[in-house]
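STRUCTURE REQUEST FORM
Protein name: Alanine--tRNA ligase
Source organism: marine sediment metagenome
Requested output: structure tokens
Priority: standard
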Amino acid sequence: ALFESKYEETVRAVNIGKFSMEVCGGTHVARSGEIGLLKIISESAVAAGIRRIEAVVGKKALEWMENRDVLLKKIASDLDTSEEEIPARLKEKEKDLEKKVHQLKRWQRRWVLLKMDQLMREAFEVGRVKVISGKWNNVDPEVLREAAEKLRDRLKRGIVVLASVSQDKGLLVAASTHKSLPANLTIKEITQLAGGNGGGRWDFAQGGTSYPSRVKSALAKLPHIVKNLK
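Status: completed
Returned output:
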């Protein structure tokens, strides 16, 4: 029986004709007809081969369905459509969002291209290694990675470290021209200084932190980090 450790010799059982007979499991009704409407509201895995099903019955099932009906009407109203057209309207909204994200990336790429020339002019040397470093706000990760790789391709021998910070996180990427200047070790040290972690390959690596306010001070340590890599 289910929960047998909680049962004594005499247990309450629910018998539904010849179809099923189970321990009550909290189903305290005099007859199965009292259960009435049953609505499954969740299903999950408890262990290997065992599923947990939760349902509401009777009056609670009706209340659950009424609440869902109210919610459905609210969603339809917010989307300015009928309940039947909600899926189509959501699909339409999704496509509109994809277009806007694509447009934002295009604008960011143009903006970053302008900033890349500035970063090249501000590049500094550690020994014979050219180092480029920059920090921007809310730049798309894909755009940030592309910028790091394009800047690296302009260098004969050097390393590029770029960061994008938002309100609650920071993303850092590094791109290197030589194995003797491993990007993965560079990004690991910088992200750790910023309270995060990262890794990757010698030529490209990335990492993140949940402390965006620490990114600026971590990037300030880049000359020291590069000096120790050589």
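Reviewer notes: Residues 89 and 225 are 52 Å apart (CA to CA). The chain has two domains: 10-72, 117-229.
Form closed.
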